[in-house]
Amino acid sequence: MFILGFESSCDETSASVVEEIGGKLFVRSNIVASQIPVHRLYGGVVPEIASRAHVEAISRITGEALDGAGISLSDVGLVAVTSHPGLIGALLVAVNFAKGIAAANGIPLVGVDHIRGHIAAAYLSGENGAPTPKPPFLALALSGGHTSIYRVTSYTDWETVGSTRDDAIGEAFDKIGRLIGLEYPAGAAFDRLAAEGFREATGVDSPSPAQYAASEAGRDPRMKLPSPALPGETLDFSFSGLKTAAINLLHHLEQTGEDLPRALFAARYTALCVEAVEKKLGTALDRYPGLPVVAAGGVAANSHLRRELASLSARRGVGLFIPPLSLCGDNAAMIAAQGYYEYLAGNLRDSSLNASASDD
Ligand code: KG4
Ligand code: ZN
Description:
Nucleotidyltransferase, domain 5, binds zinc ion, binds 5'-O-[(R)-(carboxyoxy)(hydroxy)phosphoryl]adenosine
């Protein structure tokens, strides 16, 4: 079966064709029209501009997705669209487009939760035939709007076992990244700058957390910042304290006329974020021993986080699944993948499908 997926919850318009063969899911096309250059001028996403840009792009990229897969609409067996959460005006564009395509062509329709979509990116089989995760597993959703840990009990059911009480991890990179002169969205540039900082601090590429912590820069008290992992057994995070402390530190350096060691600062900030995720995942694994782990969302592209999660999963003897970089950010292939399981579970929708800004 061919599944046509749509995504327009934030600043990427995406259409994708995923093919299901014997229960395995293969990406046949995945077109992502990014609006980032437009929003960069404003330092963040402008919702009204995002909605208009989705309207302009969606029809064209749908054609490209179908052509890329070498199929036409009459071959499509399922339409899947992100229905929540996200920017309401942006979500409505793909929801209405998908409803129109489904109704006009008599194709079944499903609405997909964006975060479940991120996790479902791990269900897509690559060319190399590497295994894909099967529930139950623990899922880390690390994006611009979410920092959550879920116990995924089936392809369509989950329980939230931890989440951020304020800002999300991606937002924490974007906002502080902007203050140190990185363009929106700062995540990828922050990642590269931190790599320079880790090298500068230790003299080696990709040092272990212990090597970094033992280095002079790793111990520098001037760059002391609070951990975003809340103390105790809770699986919750709080990034606002880290963000405020980082802002204060940057202001202090500015006022005292000291140069900001940008790379070393990026390394310290990244180390704290990565350690916090690792720490809470470790606690989650104590609570749910043996469950494999899926890490997904834009921040799962972070090279330092990927390295440390690989090391943690090896130490704990649990499987780790992280989608390839091309499927970590927002895309419609992941929506098609989750859509397939919503369809199997009988969660079909009709033209009453609506978009929602919130998590449900
Ligand atoms: O999942 P996503 O594409 O969109 C949302 O659903 O929010 O995540 C976007 C977030 C942004 O905050 C971006 O800066 C961050 O993912 N990001 C990264 C990296 N690449 C993207 N954060 C850290 N390291 C990266 N390499
Ligand atoms: Zn996303």
